[in-house]
Amino acid sequence: MAWDGPFWVKLRRQLTDEEKPRQLRVDLPASSQTQTDRSVFAMNESWLEMTNTAYLQRGMLTYGCLMLLPLGVLFVGGMIWAMLNPPPNTHGAELALAMAFVVCFMLFGCFLVFASLWGLHQENFTWTRIPIRFNRQTRMVHAFRGAGAKGVISVPWERAFFFIEQLSKDPISRGTPYGLRCHVLDDQGCVTQSFSFGRRVYTLDDETTENGRSIVHNLNDQFEYIRRYMEGGTSGVPAPDLVRTEVSFRNSCRVVFRNDKKLLAEGNIVATLLVRVLKPFAALTAVLHYIGMRTSREPVWPADLDASPTSFAKVGAPHTLTVMSKQVALEGDLCQCKCEPLPKLIASQTTGTHSA
Is the pTM of this model over 0.85? Predict the structure, then answer.
């Protein structure tokens, strides 16, 4: 078992019967349409960089751990008090049995404390995001981090096992989450490493219903966007609605409240009620998301993977004008800086610079 975002992933095993039929092949269309569902950080002619599912769920694990931590401290403190103040009329075997129970409860409290601190570290004092990069020039997929590795995970595009992953129901909303995942297989077909990518979807309806299928099919659209990019580059896909990476409370709110409109659009009375009732808790999650981002550092790719021919995102019709093998930005393209909103480039016939 290895940790990947908010879930454990079982490694060193064969593919399961549930995973095999959900495979998304790189040589076959996954859908007739494409969408990114706001899961793209950046894109140029060399690579497409996407989110993993943990980025959009940041703060939720911290929320749970902050509730468990005081409970664990209470257990430990109470049991220490019980050991220092044994019952006055208890002796011999009876006292030994009581102390054994006290020690067991204290160990349980210690487990809660350490588990909470470990969980808090997963979203605080770590990386601001775990990007996934699809490089169409080298035909490689790189995950900055993932299950089964302490560094970058790299796998050839044609050898990666992509599939739609169904997870357990959310204990609060009772919605079923689905996401995109990639397994790295060895020569014997065993799962050695794994990472998630893209944006997870939730549905309160079963996958066998028309509404449930349509929501899960959004993942097919996301994967088809990647597949078409790997085949045709930026000219083969529409310009993405980029996910902002700046650290700000406004951006954290944008991430946390991203699913509200979709849940309300389902027209489900339970979903509508949950969105309204959980709004204060979601606001606290946004605060925790911001704290986690503020206390973390930016991911830095190894030098050999970080080569980028452009620092802008194309807008509108495809254009492939290049100078010295570098794509040229045109009027209206978006500068990929940390400004908000992203500034549009303005063409000039009197001034201009170019660097190799």
Answer: no
